[in-house]
Amino acid sequence: MTTLKAGPTFDEVAVGDQLPTLELPITRTLITSGAIASRDYQDVHHDHVLSKERGSPDIFMNILTTNGLVGRYVTDWTGPGGVLTDVDIRLGAPNYPGDSMTLTGVVTGVEEPTGGSEGTEGYGTVEIAVQGANSLGDHVSGTVRLRLPAASSAAGAATAVAEPPGPDDRRSR
User: Fold this and answer.
1) Domain count of the fold of the chain
2) pLDDT tens digits for 112-151?
3) Is residue 173 part of a domain?
4) 150 within domain boundaries
5) Which of 4, 12, 21, 91 is in the most buried spot, having the most CB atoms within 10 Å?
6) pLDDT surpasses 90 at 88
7) pLDDT tens digits, residue range 155-164?
């Protein structure tokens, strides 16, 4: 079993807190697999010849992959206790293969936990401004809103996850 590290509780977060920086290499595989996984079969995301015919220097990342990477960036920080509620992003400079994107974020707002609706009791809302830049400029900018558990409801928030079977695991599947 692997235990996922619990992220911050709502009580540990303040406006101005910086999220750790994440640098992601932009590869052809990442661009193409992200497009396929999101069922975006536009040729500009997988065919470099057609991309060039359409005026682009190469294939480029689609917005759905960027959206997923922004979500991953924030949930890497929150750990398993964070629940994304809104991701509002805008694309800028394209992500081309061979470049890298550096994601940064800062907490811009916090709302105290309320009684809330079922499933939200004991959770506070956090707003994070996120930016992802590459060598051409800002690829993505936007705001992510999420719920984080208050310290009183996060006791034991680390989550155990079963390891996938290894190559020598003879259990029936």
Assistant:
1) 1
2) 877 665 556 789 999 999 999 999 999 999 999 999 998 8
3) no
4) yes
5) 91
6) yes
7) 544 444 445 4
